Amino acid sequence: MSEPTIIEQRKADHIRVCWKEDVEAGYDPWADISLVHDALTDVDADNVDCSVELYGRRLSTPIIIAAMTGGTDEARRINRDLAALAQELGLGMGLGSQRIMVEQPDTTRTFEVRDVAPDILLLGNLGLVQFVAGWGAKEALKAVEGIGADALCVHLNPAHEMTQPEGDRAFKGGEAALARLCTDLEVPVVAKETGCGISRETAARLAEAGVAGIDVGGVGGTSWVAVEHYRDTGNRLAETFWRWGLPTPISVAEVRSACDLPVIATGGVRTGIDVIKSLRLGATAVGVALPVLRAYMDGGVDGARSYLTTLIAETRAAMLLCGASSRVELMDRPLVLTGRTREWLEQRT
Ligand SMILES: Cc1cc2nc3c(=O)[nH]c(=O)nc-3n(C[C@H](O)[C@H](O)[C@H](O)COP(=O)(O)O)c2cc1C
Question: Which helix (H) or strand (E) holds 84?
């Protein structure tokens, strides 16, 4: 077998570190937010409908298995197993960064899932730094068409790059590059943070650039900066910026206050109560990565299925316990904000 390339090695490191190490923010970003229980709920469990249509696909529960991997044989197995589960459960799925696929087309097979998941919302993934460095619609189209994606997530990850020893350092021109891509690519482009959140101001600039949605990728779940800490123990920069950014619920509220685009709440969504809090704050859907990966690595397909079916059951139960049978009704139900989250949102939205 040939030696793994640097990107292949990095992908394998990411899976191992996220599975085994403590890579989360270390606090519950949802703690300051409460849904109000309705003891006299007027909803039958069978009538709870939290489905949503996004980029031409229907999600029976608004949950997306967030972008994780691709590029290696192990990644192929993970992508295909999780995509088949998404198909079975009516969920969406994001693929990991396809930079390796554009640069080494023989790795396309590690991202191919359409044959096992013909109907799911499938999101492609490339990094904005690549477009700053000169990529355009041609490369984006290769990524999207090669796998039959419904939309392309463009990840914005300056904190991750800055704390990664081999990370990119050139971000100037990103906004213009994104605007060009949104004009030239006939597929919806979703701007996606990977753990530091999107502010109101950034959301307004993204909307102006022409994106078709925003995945807030906020603080509270997997910290990419933390992942770099474990890959390079002793990296002071990574320790300092471990919890840098906007917590996920705050970011959802900020982005919602700035634009009407679909918002995906990713970063620390762990239970169905977190899902319903996200929707109540204005998210269209949520993304979940780490718990799915860990359930899969520990228990295979059955482990991931068990985690996801529980997450779906919790989501439906939380909606019913708020007295709502639909997403529209949910938006009329009370939400209580306390502590730091309340102080922040009073100043900022
Ligand atoms: C192993 C792993 C690999 C990831 N790779 C990518 C990636 O290639 N592109 C991307 O946009 N996000 C990537 N992410 C970030 C996730 O999509 C998600 O935004 C982040 O993990 C926060 O969600 P969580 O708290 O549920 O894990 C990755 C996450 C994990 C755990």
Answer: helix 73-89
233 CB-near residues (< 8 Å, 6+ apart): none
Spacing, Cα 92 to ligand 1 middle (Å): 14
User: What CATH number does the domain containing 309 carry?
Assistant: 3.20.20.70
Pocket lining: 92 vs ligand 1, CB cutoff 6 Å: no
Residue 169 lies inside a defined structural domain of this protein: yes
Number of separate domains in the chain: 1
How far, in Å, from the CA of 44 to the mean position of ligand 1?
Answer: 35
From ligand 1's centre to the CA of 111, what distance in Å?
A: 15
Q: Residue length, the chain?
A: 349
* Residues sharing a CB contact under 8 Å with residue 282, sequence separation 6 or more, in sequence order: 252, 253, 255, 256, 263
Q: Is 329 within a domain? A: yes
Q: How many whole angstroms separate alpha carbon 277 and alpha carbon 1?
A: 48
Which residue's CA is the closest to the ligand 1 atom numbered 2?
A: 68
User: Among 6, 147, 111, 122, which Cα is nearest to 55's?
Assistant: 122
* Tokens 């993970």 found at: 78
The CA 18 to ligand 1 mean position distance, Å, reads 9
**Ligand 1 mutation pick, 68, 79, 219, max ligand atoms within 8 A of CB:** 68
Task: Write out pLDDT tens, residues 265-308.
Answer: 999 999 999 999 999 999 999 999 999 999 999 999 999 999 99
List the domain range (segments joined by +) for residue 215.
6-348
21-39 pLDDT per residue, tens: 999 999 999 999 999 999 9
The tens digit of pLDDT for each residue in 45-70 reads 999 999 999 999 999 999 999 999 99
Residue 1 covered by a domain: no
